[in-house]
Amino acid sequence: ATADQGYAIVRLDSCGNPKIINCTIVHNHGRGVYYDDDHTITIANSILRTARSGETLDVVVVSADDGKAEISSCCLAQTGLGGANNIVADPRFFDPAAGEFSLLSDSPCIDAADGLWLPATDLNRISRNDYPGMGNTGTGTPPYGDMGCYEFGDSDLDGLSDAWELQHFLDLSH
After folding, report:
1. For the ranges 32-41, 47-56, 88-97, the one whose mean pLDDT is highest
2. Concatenated DSSP letters for 99-134?
3. Span 132-149, mean pLDDT?
4. Which of 34, 53, 82, 111 is the most exposed place for a label (fewest CB within 10 A)?
5. pLDDT score at 92
6. Which of 122, 172, 171, 168 is nearest to 147 (CA)?
């Protein structure tokens, strides 16, 4: 999700315990997630980097109204959010300036998600897979899914994601 102003996701009143799973929330003017509720928001296996170049804003803001956030196995732009298996690192997107948020082959988000939250496929319907070029730092079963909405797959081992090659060349021969 991207937004030119404000938040990408806002939750202000009570309707249960929302979950943000395997999402990529980036390039917002403002913050990524604002939560003001008396329940718990769960954010897992996601990449949250809201600030555009030169901006330094918190990614997730939870108000003081008894609400809380459980954030785990996420790639974050800010420290101090707690949670298990989170990393504060550059996710290494292919071309974020052009809106291309697939992962590069050296992304710390590859094989780093929690398998308990993984859907079977990513946003492009690519199956979750174990990339041999990256050690498995994820948890759960399987321990090798990727953080964010795009799974890094490189079936021809050329360092380019299959999703990017299919989008730009319509085949995997490049």
Report:
1. 88-97
2. TEEEEPTT-TTTT-SBTTT--SB-TT-PBP---TTS
3. 88
4. 53
5. 92
6. 122
Residue with tokens 């929302």: 18
| Strand ranges inside 30-95, DSSP E | 33-35, 40-44, 47-49, 60-62, 68-72, 75-76, 87-88, 93-95
Paired residues of 25 in beta bridges: 48
Prediction pTM value: 0.81
Compute the distance between CA of residue 113 and CA of residue 75 in angstroms, rounded to an integer: 9
DSSP 8-state secondary structure symbol assigned to residue 43: E
Residues 6+ apart with CB under 8 A from 76: 48, 49, 59, 60, 86, 87, 88
Q: What is the C-alpha to C-alpha distance for residues 10 and 8, in angstroms, rounded to an integer?
A: 7
Please choose, from the candidates 154, 55, 47, the residue with its C-alpha nearest in 3D space to the C-alpha of residue 90: 47
